[in-house]
Structures are given as C-alpha cells and as structure tokens.
What we know:
Blueprint: E1 11-15, E2 24-29, E3 33-36, E4 40-42, E5 55-58, E6 62-63, E7 69-70, H1 73-81, E8 88-93, E9 96-107, E10 110-119, E11 124-132, H2 135-152
Antiparallel strand pairs: 1-2, 2-4, 3-5, 6-7, 8-9, 9-10, 10-11
Helix pairs in contact: 1-2
Amino acid sequence: MCDKVASLKHGMTTCTDKTFRGSNCSFACINNHVIKGNPAITCLQDGNWSDPVPSCVCHHCKVGDNCEYSASWQIIAGALNNMQVTGSIVVNYGGKSFSCKIEVGSLLPKLLWTGICLDSETETKQDCRDVHTSKSDSAKAAAAELIRRLVAQRQYIEPCDADQMPTVC
C-alpha cells in the first residue's frame, strides 16, 4: 500500500484509489497556477508512488494567492521609463506598491536628476541623487535600491529578473 496522497494547495486531485497498488492519481491546478512535477502518478507494486506528488505554483514572475501580481523588474522599469518630471507614479510590485518621483537639479551645462521612491507602508524612502543624466535612469536606480532594501528586510520578494536591475544609485 502507498501512503495516502495529500490534497494540493491551489489544485485538485483525482485518484482511482488513494492507497492500493495500481492506483492512479492525477493532478490539476486552479487559480492561474501551473503544475510543477508529474501530473499523474501510480502506486507501484513495492508500495511507493511512481513520482513525488506535484505542486501548484505561479507562472514565472507571478505571485499572490491567485498569481495575480507581477514580480518582474522589467515591468517596473517600463513604467518608470514613462515618468514625467512633474508628478509621481505609483508602482505595483508583488502585491505591494510604492511611489516614485523625479526632481531636477542643475550643474551647468547639464541637468542632473534625482529619483525618489517611497514605500508608505514601511515608510522606507530611497533617493538617488546627482549621478544620473536621465530622469528614467534616476527613478529606476532609486526603485531598484528600494526593492533591494525591502527584500533584505523580508518586506518584498525578490524580482524574478533581479539580475537586470541597475546597481548604481
């Protein structure tokens, strides 16, 4: 006899018989989740299952109970590319949100941009001053550093593409 198959979180299990040799179990996921592992297993003659019970996970770069939130740096960077100097933008990331704005300064003959991002829930602020010559680069640098800080504090999850984040603030 095989061990009883546990039910899947975010999934469904259908078995011909949950413990006897020759029993087959199939698995399917719900709520935007995808199967990780073999979607069908069999109770073998030696009393072991042919494969481990699979799990239901979110697609790459998605998080949340229903995989409804993005955790991708590229999506954040795209939003910040369209920022205007006046006003701020709210960025949704992994079920959390933070705001960013840009301030402009001058060191003649060129303009210097400062990106400022704030997570109001944790009151964590990050600014990147006087090192960027484009408004979007300053905002992206501030957002990347804010995300790194909040990941280190276990407030945010790490982006699935963290290797693409700017490293200079």
